[in-house]
Each structure stands twice: as C-alpha cells, then as structure tokens.
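G., before I forget:
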Amino acid sequence: MADKQHLYLVDGSAYIFRAYHRLPPLTNPEGTPVGAVYGYTTMLWKLAEDLDKAEGPTHLAVVLDKSSQSFRNEIYDQYKANRPDPPEDLVPQFPLIRDATRAFSLPMIEEPGVEADDMIASYARAAAAKGWDVTIVSSDKDLMQLVGTSEQGGTIDMLDTMKSARIGPAEVEEKFGVAPELVGDVLALMGDSVDNIPGIFGVGPKTATKLIQDHGSLTAALDAAPEMKKSKLKERLLEHRADAELSRILVTLKEDCELPIAIDDMKLGKIPPEPLAAFLTQHGFGSLLRRLEGGNGGPGPKTQLHPAKPQNPDEAHAPQGNSQPLPEMPAIDRSAYACLQSVEQLDQWIEKAFAARLVAVDTETSALDAMQADLVGVSLAIGPNQACYIPLGHFNEGGGGDDMFAEKPQQIARETALAMLKPLLESDAVLKVGQNIKYDLNVLARHGIAVAPIEDTMIVSFALDAGRSQDGIGGGHGMDELAQRHLGHTCLTFKEICGTGKKAIPFGEVPIDRATEYAAEDADVTWRLYTHLKPRLAVEGGTRVYERVDRPLIPVVAGMERHGIKVDRQQLAALSERFARETARLEGEIHEIAGQEFTVGSPKQLGDILFDKMGYKGGKKGKSGQYSTDQSVLEKLDATGAPIATKVLEWRQLAKLKSTYTDALQQAINPKTNRVHTSYSLVGAQTGRLSSTDPNLQNIPIRTEIGREIRQAFVAEEGNVLLAADYSQIELRLAAHMADVAPLREAFAAGEDIHARTAQEMFGSVDRDTRARAKTINFAILYGISRWGLAGRLGIEADEAQDLIDIYFARFPGIQRYIVNTMETVRECGYSQTLFGRKTWFPRINSKNQAERQGSERAAVNAPIQGTSADIIKRAMARMGPALAEAGLKPDAPDGVRMLLQVHDELVFEMPEGLVEQARPVIQSVMADAAGPAIELTVPLGVEIGTGRNWDDAH
DNA sequence: CTGATCACG
DNA sequence: GACGTACGTGATCAGG
C-alpha cells in the first residue's frame, strides 16, 4: 500500500478566537487566563493522536498571523479597520499559543506582511500540486474557496475540530450554494462587516448566492445588471460595482507566497514529551499531563506514572487559608447588592454575566430538601460586591405561597425569570460556581434547567483541606466557615435571617431587602472563595482529584438523587407492625424478669437494673459513670445464662430496625415521585468516601435474616429489575497492590478465596474457624492494627495477638514496610495520599496525647486504602453514563439504565428487564477498569453482579 | 446538645 | 504512669 502524504495546516489564530468564546474562563496557577490556550492545546493533542489513523496527518504545521498588515491594506486602507479589540483576557493568551505550539515541537509559520489565510492557501496549493492530501484545520469561510482536488489528485478539505466536522466540496456547496471555486465571488458580493470588506450594500448571503448561481460568476452577474428589470438590487449592482470588484480582490487568497519551511520538513512524528510536560505543568493542565504520563495513547511516549509520596514537605506546615496573599478585593458591602424586580434589570444582569464568563450562583428555597423545596429566589455574583438577588417566590407574612390573594412584593414572574436565566445557566461559555452546587443543580433541574459547566467551592476546599478542620458542620467546608477562614468575613447566618426553632419563618417570608443582603452575600462570598481557592489546587497538587474525580461526579450524583429508589410502603408498614408487636411482647417479658417496669431503651436504667438490682457481674462503668450495656456486654451475660440479656438483645434489634428503618423510610417517601431520594455528601468522609443522609441509604441492613427483610422492600418499578454490582474485597486488593504483597497479589490474580489463603499461610490449614480468624486479621491490617484490638476481636490475649501479627508480617512481606512508610510520610508532611493524589490531613499525627496520636496513625494507614477505593468507584460512576450511552442503554431515561445508589463498594441500578444482559458487561468493565489508565494495578479488580426484583435478591 | 448504641462498608 | 484500643460513616433515643 502506497502511503499517501497528508498535510494538516492548522489555522491557529482563527482557532483561538473560537476557543475563547466556547470555553470557560480558566486560569493557570499564576492567574493568567488560559481558557483559549487550553482549547488550542487539546486540539493539537487530538490531531497528534490521529497520526496513525487513515484520515490523520503525516505532516502538520501551525500557521499564525504575525501582524494584521498585508497587501490588502495597501489597496484598501479600511481593510479590517472595524475589528474590535480582542477581549482583555484573550490578549495575554496570544503569545501562549506560540508557546503551546513549540511545546508540541511542531513547525510554526508566521510571516510578516502575509496573512495566515494566504500562507495556508499557498501551502495547500503547493502540497496538492505534489499530489498530497491537505486538510485545513479551520472553519473560516474564506478558506472554503480552496476545497477541491488538484490535477495531481491531491484533495484539499477542511476540518472543524469544534464540531468534529469535515468540510469537503459538498459541505461548501451546501453552505454557499455554489462550488468552492465560486465562493470568492459570493463573498465579494456579500462583503464582511468584521473585516470591513464592502461587498455590495444590501446584498447578503442569500442574494449573493442566487446571483452567482444564475449568472455563473461575479463578472457575469455585474455585467448582466443593466439588463435586469428595475429593482433596488439592480440599482445597487450598478452603483457599487467598484466595491464588488475591490472586494473580489480582497477575498482572493494569495496562493504564491514564499514558503519559509519546506513541506517535507513538516513530517509529524511522536511528540517529544519533555517540553510538552513542562508546558502542561506550567499552565496547570493536569488532565493532559496525567494522560501524557499515563501513556494513554497520548502523543508522548509511554511512561509509567509513579504514584508518588508527597513531594513537598514545606506544604505540610504551611498555614491553611492565609498562606496566599489575598487577591486585592474590597471588603464585603451588602449595601452594594442589587435586588432585581423587573425584566429589564434582569436582562442587564444576564448580559453582564455572559460578559464576565464566570458567575457565582446560589438558589434560595423554602426548605432544605432539594427534591421538595420550592424555589424562592436566585442570586448571582460576577465580582466582589457585584451581586444581585432575584426574588421569585416571596410573599408577605401570613399569606401562603400558593394563596393567590396573599400580598406579594414586586417580583418577576418565576417562569419568566427562569426562562431568561436558562441560556446563561446552560451556556458552555460561562462557568457557574456554587457552594455545594449539587443542591442548586437539583432545584433547577426540577425547573428544566441543566446547569453546566460548574465549579464548586466546597469541593475545591475538600480537595485542598480534607481533614484539616478539627470539627464543625459540613466537615469544615461549609460556606460560613470558609468565609471566616479565607476571607476573614462573618456571613449573615440563616438563623439571623429566618430565626430558629419554632419561631423560624420560611425564606419566602423574609422581607426582600433582608433576603437580598443574605442571598446576594452568599453569591458574593462564593465568587470570592472561588478566586481564592481555585489557584491553590494546581499549586498544592489537588487539580487531578478535583478535575478528574470529584467535579465530574457532581452532576452524576445529583442525577442519582433525583432518580431516587422505589420502596414498598405496604411491606414496610407490615414489618413495622410486626416489630411493634414483638417489642411489646419482649418488653413485658423483660419487665417480668426484672421484677419492675423500666425503660428498656435507656442504657442507664438497664445498667442499673442488670448490675445493681439483679446483681450480675461484669458491669463496667465508663467515664460517664454509667454501666456499659452494649452488645458485647449483653452477649457475655447471655453466655453466662442470663435470659434477660437475650431478650434485651432481641428487643434492641427490633426497636432499632423499626425506628431507624421501617418507620423512618415510610416517612421518607416523596409524595410527588413515590420514591426515596437520599442526599449524598461529597465531603462527608475525610477519606473521600461519599456519605448518605436523609435518609441514610448506605446502612440498610443486610447481615441478619430479619434485617434483610427491610432490604427486600427496596424494589424495582414494574417491568424493571434492580442490578447490584459490588467490588469484591477491593480494599484488600488495593492493600496488596500498594504494599506490594506478592502472595496476596498472586492469590487475587488466581482468583483464590483470599481469607482462606490467609488462613493457609498463617495457620497451615483452612477450616471455618481459621478462615474466620484470618478474615478478622485481614481487616485488622487495613484498619491499622494493635495487639490489644486484635486480641479483643479474637478473644485471645494480647501477646498471642502479637504473635499472630508477627506471623502475618513475616508471611506477607511488604505490609509492615507500607505501614511504617505511610506513618513516617504523614508525620513529616501532615497528610497521606491516595493513588490518585487525594490528600487527607492528619493534624493530630504529632500530638503529645498518645491516644490521639495513635488514633491518627491508624487512620493515616487506612486512609490511602479506603480513599483509593473511593476514588476508583467515583471514577467508575463518572464514566458510567457515557459508557452506557455509547452502548445504547440510555442512562437516566425512564426506559434505560439508571444508576440509583452507591454504597462505598457497590452500585445499584434500575433497568427494564430486557436490558440486563446488555448492561451487565458494560457495568462490569467500567467498574473493573476504573483505576486505569492513570493507575495500572498489579491486582485485578473483581466485580460481582446480581439482579432481582428487590435489593436483597440482587445480591 | 451529648453520649450510647447499632445499622452499613 | 496511665491511657485504651480497628478505619470510615449516620440515625435514633434518653437524659441533662
């Protein structure tokens, strides 16, 4: 096969303008705007990746405008005189385009006195004349004249990388109605207001096309003018003939420019990785850098990424928050906020927000539940103190929200305002920043608005500072705390505005001026926090986990929350009733044994009854001066033959199940959707795990037969099934990988029962007892072992436990080294890291309090393992939608595959029965491959999948 | 509001 | 010399 040469000519200057308007306003770690540069970089990357493909380049060069002066200015001094100045934040990006091109080691052509279009035309013709194929990477209509095939058989086409569309002769004809060689004639008639090419006044694309179609050429059309029947058009053609002829010259591309670089020297090879890596690092393009290092088909050579120890010890003790100089910002001034009560005002604000390209958004609602609350208002901020509040659902005290006679303050009709906001909130070109924006996503999704692209200051804070805050609501990432810590500002609190407890009023009843101060401040603070926190990500190594793991997850989790899961109310009600009967019976029996009535549910009363009145031994008082009556104590009593202990244990189980599950879940059913919608927190667990609240669906019973009956109440819709996909032993597998434990790795690779294998190694034989003990030891390892802890669990003495630990370390070399290394690193740096770079801080790791310190040490050993597992399932979740869509499985559609729940190492889906066999392999492979390509694990990730009508059957 | 207890991974 | 034992969560209840 004779390989045909294929030259790609990239119209760099034109691209950057389009990229600027298409992409959000990103900045690099130094604060330089780089959104357009990022777009340019990804485009070059994609082109370079196509090197080996059929339609891909063999040769490639970038053509840039050196100056806007050319021969055209000499013949027409008004040429391009109307060009507006480029936007302020685009100007500094021009030189970066050159840097980017050099970073890719690509030939770059920029000649003074010649426009890029002419240079592209000259190269394209020269290459086509040699019989090469040419692709012009641009969508500039002027260049469409060039499309076609040369006598030597070389084709010239165009590629619009933003729309991934090829433009050949057919596409040109579709656009202009004429063949490519006549495009210049059409353009000459049309003119171009941006380049200030006059054309013929009053002739637009439609008329121009028709004239050329009818007469065959510009000259013929102009010549035919005198014979036309009397019309405005005829007059204009006659009067402005000279303009058209001048325009024809201006739109003609100069195809004989001197070629500064020989075409043969534009050969495209493998891109040298070093300069590219330096460039990507400088501008904080973490995702590309990761691909380069991960060798994922990127343009660079394959290299293995080494999940690193934290590199920068100085970071450890850098004070958080004020370590960076605060960007100069005026103090918060609530009197500067605007309250938008008319369509005109809102219109102006939306326009300003489009221009700002970065807007902080916050919604105010009537309640905390995003699935039920009514929208009361929206606030926006586009700069410090430049914030507004748009009241939408306010009413005066006493009136009801839906009471049409209630007195309402002046406000824009809700649907009108939302229709106006929708284009802004959905525009690709405007970044929407929120504090916990998942909430706003859900509220607005219920009004048909799909907010994107998004940023979240809470998630940014979590990527930077997980674990740093000692305590506090929102895990230390709540807005009031962040404002205090980073901006030194005390926010108005919700309590101050709405009151607390019984006297609390819904936000809709807050007077509008007061509501404006509160709501607009939230948006203002969010805007400020974003500008303050975002740059820290790149500096402190948080970009990868934020951009690649957590940020993409926000809309995914929001979708899961909106889907909810169906629970069978009747089934729960029946269980509640049964549990009520049995607890009542048990209570009577317990009172009888005790010889008096008391509150069984009170540990204090129970302790007194058991150990004082009834005189059982083994009572231990804790620091509260109260006997402990927990499960282990009661089980010991039970073993000594105390019938009351058995009954109390049974009572507790049923009471727990009834109050926490069968009663509470019925209440949690959303009356509108008839489903249960949990709320996931993305910052709930310091290790990076999700947590679930209202209700918590991550602790639904499974371990006991009676508990599993509750799980059976979680069901699929009619005609659907639930599919549960579990990672098997993921944390042990990760421990085997991260600590490089050869015997464990081999056992996993061979698909062995890992606890049995451990039992074999440790005790020399496998039976029920040794396997159970081995399982306990395996978990002990993951949690940071102590001889006393293990002794307690196994019911042996501490020194026996120590012997077992020693045997474990000897049999599984690597584990001890991993533990010691991790603790040393954390002591030194203050944080641990997952394989994907997620940090967890341990501020008490060097505490003088031994218990505190040892607690931190165990947590620090566990965090990289638990956190890596969390990263992996999060990556799987983010990829699941696109993977299902590609397989035609319609993620999120009512008749497609819907992802409903995440339980740390398990994902639960709902789907029509008929899709199961198609969905199973997709889900399986997305989950099993979720660590790659960034991380190549030395153990396979096992995924077990089951299906059934209910959640229990799906296991 | 805190501590004890117990549901999950 | 005493401490207090596995990591990570959230909901509920009793009691101050």
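Chain A has five domains: 6-266, 273-306, 334-540, 566-674, 753-811. Confidence is low (pLDDT under 50) at residues 300-326 of chain A.

More on Monday.
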